[in-house]
């Protein structure tokens, strides 16, 4: 049924042709031809998107103003109580803060390591395509499957890493009881999964830097580091804006690895905000808090993106391409 | 020939290049390690796996192909082939729609001129910043209340489209915003004169999109196809939340179910089965990646994000 909807509207010039008998309509159609075609193409898609994504999202935000615990209960309008609770209850504001610094940490490690790798992959090495593939492979694997492998490696009694520690005469560690190690492995997993993709994007950027600039720098007597500092880095600015924004948006919304690796534990000390939203929605059926938290998360991401974009374009206007909004990674 | 080979080898062995080789290869192997471990663990039987003290590279005493065969023939514990087929159908279906909607929407935003275009595009892109988790419960309610489906009268009465194939089908025709963004960037690099020339020759919008522009967008279309295919293939959320019957499960949802059972206290996780399913998911993803990997780089280069 839905398929037909999209296909039927596909003959795009139909409205224009059917109007051709009446002159005023024809004029209208000719003048607004682009808009009519755009409407014919976009409206079914966007309508469908509204039904499946837009409306549920708005409904979720809307629920942020209600107290609604348990599906069977009926919602009660409570104005901003959920938002007040968000900033009073450490469960929530600490989760938000954790999302921010964890996202920042994962992004910086991933991007710096990825940049180093991209510099190496950009050298005239034999088999660099193979390296590129090997580094990218973790990105194509499924989070569910690979987190289970990590869990297996981190098993307390028969985990590979603990067995290794025992074999070199160290005490085995109960990773699951420690906040530090919980966060540590979440970061390791995220970097493991993200570094190849970051390297690939940096590499695309490195290869697009104008070669003649390097030649000019060489004539001016620049060494390897001089070229890196004065030619490569400024040339990478546009792509840096893109990759920092998309990575941050992705990393601040990390929750699958938390769900599958630490499950928020120990004592909820590795809960990040999106995991908290998930938990509220699916385990506690507290839709009010889930909605309020989501709106706060969206605002934080949006404000962060705008500020970063402003800052990075202001510091060098001429060198930056336009990126509108931020794609989800 | 031989001499130039020697020269090449000498070049690769210069200290700087050799160091680069070592770093890329060394870290690369560390990155590959979890997958190597997964493949090795796939050769274990369930009992041997739980009784062996696992070393860094565990080799089984009596290697078995059973886990790999289960991927093709299924087992009593798990209808793996069904999950495979379901995952495959979903992947093809979503990829098809992602390509179609990205191309059409990308064309509209790149080429047509109408009031409010930029604002509309900005709003659509902005929505990508909203965490998707917010929509899970409302979507669940919406699916459950879907009119005239699953025993519903107008809005209530039955289970709607929950736990039916519609859960998978319904998302198709909705606009793929990231894809539209990428196609838009890519089409904007094609000179507009090409469209004009086609128009003079009498081509309509459909022909311009599919015959003139599409052949030039193949790298970015391949990129969208790969990312959508991998995303759908690895997606656990949709089947996990909106379906319950075994006939509708996909591989990642099956793993999620096994692992959440494992999370309950006292349960012993069926690691070999989890690993087998994990392999069943990972190997096709790797194949997709290896066959199309040059498009990933090419596609990225064509979007204009490289500045």
SSE blueprint and pairings:
The complex is a heterodimer of chains A (329) and B (307).
Chain A: H1 2-8, H2 14-18, H3 23-31, H4 33-63, E1 66-67, E2 76-77, H5 81-88, H6 90-121, H7 128-140, H8 143-153, H9 160-167, H10 179-208, H11 211-219, H12 224-235, H13 237-252, H14 256-262, H15 273-282, H16 287-315
Antiparallel strand pairs in A: 1-2
Helix pairs in contact in A: 4-16, 5-6, 6-10, 6-13, 7-10, 8-14, 10-13, 10-14, 11-12, 13-16, 15-16
Chain B: H1 2-12, H2 15-41, H3 46-51, H4 66-73, H5 80-111, H6 117-126, H7 136-144, H8 166-169, H9 177-187, H10 192-200, H11 205-213, H12 218-234, H13 237-242, H14 251-263, H15 271-302
Major sheet description of chain A: 2 strands, antiparallel
Number of separate domains of chain B: 1
Low-confidence stretches of chain B: none
What would CATH call the architecture of chain B?
Orthogonal Bundle
What sort of overall outline of chain A do the alpha carbons produce when their principal axes are compared? flat
State the distance separating the first and last CA atoms of chain A: 31 Å
The count of helical stretches of chain A stands at 16
Poorly predicted parts of chain A? 1-12, 317-329
Write down the secondary-structure element order of chain A: HHHHEEHHHHHHHHHHHH
CATH class of chain B: Mainly Alpha
How big a fraction of the residues of chain A is strand? under 5%
Q: Classify the helix fraction of chain B into a percent range.
A: 55-70%
Question: Structural class of the helix and strand makeup of chain A?
Answer: mainly alpha
Largest interface: A-B, 110 and 103 residues
Rounded average pLDDT of chain B: 82
Name of the CATH homologous superfamily of the largest domain in chain A: MetI-like
Instruction: Round the Cα radius of gyration of chain B to an integer and report it.
Output: 25 Å
**Integer count of domains of chain A:** 2
Mean pLDDT of chain A: 82
């Amino acid at each position: 049924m839905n398929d037909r909807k999209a296909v039927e509207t596909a003959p795009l010039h139909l409205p224009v042709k059917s109007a051709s008998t009446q002159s005023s309509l024809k004029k209208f159609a000719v003048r607004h031809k682009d808009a009519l075609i755009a409407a014919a193409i976009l409206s079914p898609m966007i309508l469908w998107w509204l039904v499946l994504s837009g409306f549920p999202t708005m409904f979720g935000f809307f629920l942020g103003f209600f107290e609604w615990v348990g599906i069977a209960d009926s919602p009660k309008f409570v104005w901003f109580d959920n938002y007040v609770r968000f900033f009073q209850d450490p469960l929530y504001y600490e989760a938000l803060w954790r999302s921010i610094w964890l996202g920042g940490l994962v992004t910086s490690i991933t991007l710096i390591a990825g940049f180093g790798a991209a510099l190496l992959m950009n050298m005239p090495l034999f088999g660099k395509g193979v390296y590129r593939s090997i580094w990218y492979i973790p990105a194509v694997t499924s989070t569910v499957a690979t987190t289970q492998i990590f869990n297996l490696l981190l098993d307390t009694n028969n985990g590979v890493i603990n067995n290794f520690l025992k074999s070199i005469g160290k005490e085995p560690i109960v990773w699951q009881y420690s906040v530090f190690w919980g966060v540590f492995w979440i970061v390791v997993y995220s970097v493991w999964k993200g570094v190849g993709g970051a390297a690939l994007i940096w590499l695309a950027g490195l290869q697009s830097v104008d070669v003649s600039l390097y030649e000019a720098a060489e004539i001016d007597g620049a060494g390897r580091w001089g070229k890196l500092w004065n030619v490569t880095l400024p040339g990478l600015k546009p792509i840096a804006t893109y990759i920092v924004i998309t990575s941050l948006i992705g990393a601040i919304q990390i929750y699958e690895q938390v769900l599958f690796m630490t499950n928020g534990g120990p004592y909820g000390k590795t809960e990040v905000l999106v995991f908290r939203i998930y938990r509220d929605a699916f385990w506690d059926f507290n839709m009010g808090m889930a909605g309020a938290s989501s709106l706060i998360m969206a605002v934080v991401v949006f404000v962060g993106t705008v500020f970063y974009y402003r800052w990075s374009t202001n510091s060098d206007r001429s060198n930056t391409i336009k990126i509108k909004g931020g794609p989800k990674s | 020939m031989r001499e130039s080979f020697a020269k090449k080898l000498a070049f690769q062995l210069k200290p700087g290049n050799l160091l680069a080789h070592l770093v890329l290869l060394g870290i690369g192997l560390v990155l590959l390690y979890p997958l190597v471990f997964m493949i090795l663990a796939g050769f274990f039987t369930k009992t041997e796996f739980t009784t062996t003290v696992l070393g860094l590279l565990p080799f089984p005493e009596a290697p078995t192909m059973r886990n790999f065969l289960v991927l093709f023939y299924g087992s009593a514990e798990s209808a793996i082939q069904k999950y495979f087929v379901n995952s495959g159908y979903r992947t093809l279906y979503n990829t098809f729609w992602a390509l179609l909607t990205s191309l059409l929407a990308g064309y509209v935003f790149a080429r047509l001129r109408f009031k409010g275009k930029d604002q509309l595009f900005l709003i659509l892109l902005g929505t990508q910043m909203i965490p998707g988790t917010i929509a899970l419960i409302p979507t669940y309610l919406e699916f459950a209340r879907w009119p005239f489906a699953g025993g519903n009268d107008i809005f209530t009465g039955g289970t709607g489209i929950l736990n039916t194939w519609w859960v998978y089908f319904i998302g198709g025709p909705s606009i793929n915003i990231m894809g539209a963004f990428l196609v838009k960037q890519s089409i904007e690099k094609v000179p507009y004169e090409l469209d004009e020339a086609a128009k003079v020759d009498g081509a309509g919008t459909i022909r311009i999109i599919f015959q003139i522009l599409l052949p030039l967008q193949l790298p970015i279309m391949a990129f969208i196809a790969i990312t959508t295919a991998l995303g759908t293939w690895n997606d656990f959320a949709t089947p996990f939340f909106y379906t319950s019957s075994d006939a509708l499960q996909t591989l990642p949802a099956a793993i999620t179910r096994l692992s959440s059972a494992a999370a309950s206290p006292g349960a012993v996780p069926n690691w070999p089965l989890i690993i087998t399913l994990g392999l069943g998911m990972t190997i096709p993803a790797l194949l997709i990646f290896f066959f199309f990997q040059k498009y990933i780089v090419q596609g990225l280069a064509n979007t204009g994000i490289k500045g």
